[in-house]
Specification:
There is one protein chain. It contains five helices and 16 strands. The radius of gyration is 19 Å and the shape is globular. Helix content is 17%, strand content 34%. It has one domain: 2,3-Dihydroxybiphenyl 1,2-Dioxygenase, domain 1 (Roll), CATH 3.10.180.10. A hairpin with a 2-residue loop joins β2 and β3. The protein is of the alpha+beta class. This is Glyoxalase family protein. Pfam families: Glyoxalase.
C-alpha cells in the first residue's frame, strides 16, 4: 500500500476559557477571520471556533475549544509548546512588533535563532505563539488573508507555520515522525534554553514553514498540566478521504492505537497519540467550510453538522451567546 506524503500542518487546536475575549483577540488583534462558529463534536456544550485565512484553507486554521472553567496551564514537557503563524516577509514582522507595542500584547524581540526571522508573543491567556517570516520560504504555499481584516493584507497571517513539540524522550517521537508518518529530519538549531540540546527540525511533503515540526528535548521539566492557553492537538494534511482510509489501515497494521475514521463534516479525521503522549490528528483537505455557509457570511451563525441539527435547540440553550456578525 503506497501512502502519499502528508502535505503539511492542517490545523492546531487549543483551549480558551473565554470565547468572547478569544474572538476579540484573534479577529481584532491578529486579524484572522472566524470562518466557523460551531461546537466541540465530542462535547456539544462548548464552542469550537475556527480562525483562518479568508476561507479556511487547509493549513491556515487555528482553532479553540472553549472550556469556561479551564484552569491555569502549568507549562512543561510532553506538550505542543509553540504554534507558529506565517507572515509574508521580515517587514511584516516589524509591522507586528509595532502593533503589539501599541496594543500592549506580551511579546519578545524579533529573533533569527531558527534560521528565519521570528517574533514570539503570547495571547491574553498565555497561549505560546510565534510569527514566522516567509521571506526565504520555498515550501508549501500559504493562504490569503481576508481583505476585511483590520490588519493590512500585505502584513496579514497567511497560515500556520512550524509547530514545536517539547518532550522528555525525543527519539521515540522522532521515530514516529520518520518511520510512521514519513517526515524527514532536515536540520537543527540551538535551543534558547542554556544547556539544552539543539532543537531538531522535521519536514514533510513540499517542506517549508507550513510543513515542519520542531522537536525540543527537555527532561528537566515536569509533564505539562494543560488548561487555558495550552494546545490540545496538532493535525496534519491528507489529500482526501480515500487517502485517509489508507492511513487508518497503515496504523492498524502497525498496531498503533488510534481512533479509526472519524467524520467531522468539514473534514474527515484520524487521531492517535505518539509515545510521549501528544495527540496527533490526520485530517483531509476537504470538504471545507462553505457547505453550510456562503463565503461572505462564514462564522456569523452557529453552524452544526447535519447529524447534530436535530439537537440545535438543546445545544444552543447550553451556550453563552457569542455575537460574531
Amino acid at each position: 500500500m503506497q501512502l502519499k506524503p502528508l502535505k503539511g500542518i492542517h490545523h492546531v487546536s487549543a483551549i480558551t476559557a473565554n470565547a468572547k475575549e478569544n474572538y476579540k483577540f484573534y479577529t481584532q488583534v491578529l486579524g484572522l477571520r472566524l470562518v466557523k462558529k460551531t461546537v466541540n463534536q465530542d462535547d456539544t456544550s462548548v464552542y469550537h471556533l475556527f480562525y483562518a485565512d479568508e476561507r479556511g484553507n487547509p493549513g491556515t486554521d487555528l482553532t479553540f475549544f472553549e472550556i469556561p472553567h479551564a484552569g491555569q496551564t502549568y507549562q512543561g514537557t510532553n506538550s505542543i509548546s509553540a504554534t507558529s503563524l506565517r507572515v509574508a516577509n521580515d517587514e511584516a514582522l516589524r509591522y507586528w512588533k509595532k502593533r503589539f507595542e501599541e496594543l500592549d500584547v506580551d511579546h519578545d524581540d524579533i529573533s533569527n535563532e531558527t534560521g528565519r526571522a521570528t517574533l514570539s508573543f503570547r495571547d491574553f491567556e498565555g497561549q505560546r505563539l510565534v510569527l514566522v517570516s516567509d521571506e526565504t520560504n520555498s515550501g508549501v504555499a500559504g493562504g490569503k488573508p481576508w481583505d476585511k481584516s483590520p490588519v493590512p493584507t500585505e502584513h496579514g497571517v497567511v497560515g500556520l507555520g512550524p509547530v514545536k513539540l517539547t518532550v522528555a524522550q525525543p527519539d521515540i517521537t522522532a521515530t514516529i515522525l520518520t518511520q510512521v508518518m514519513g517526515f524527514t529530519e532536515v536540520g537543527s538549531y540551538a535551543s534558547p534554553v542554556e544547556g539544552q540540546k539543539d532543537i531538531r527540525v522535521f519536514e514533510t511533503g513540499e517542506g517549508g514553514t507550513g510543513a515542519e515540526i520542531h522537536l525540543e528535548e527537555n527532561s528537566d521539566l515536569e509533564r505539562e498540566r494543560p488548561g487555558r492557553g495550552s494546545v490540545h492537538h496538532v493535525a496534519f494534511r491528507v489529500e482526501n478521504e480515500e487517502e485517509l482510509k489508507k492511513w487508518v489501515t497503515h496504523l492498524q497494521e502497525l498496531r498503533l492505537p488510534n481512533s479509526g475514521f472519524v467524520e467531522r463534516y468539514y473534514f474527515r479525521s484520524l487521531y492517535f497519540r505518539e509515545p510521549n503522549g501528544i495527540l496527533f490528528e490526520l485530517a483531509t483537505d476537504g470538504p471545507g467550510f462553505e457547505g453550510d455557509e456562503d463565503f461572505d457570511h462564514l462564522g456569523e451563525r452557529l453552524s452544526l453538522p447535519p447529524y447534530f441539527e436535530d439537537q440545535r435547540e438543546s445545544i444552543e440553550a447550553k451556550l453563552v451567546p457569542l455575537n460574531t456578525k
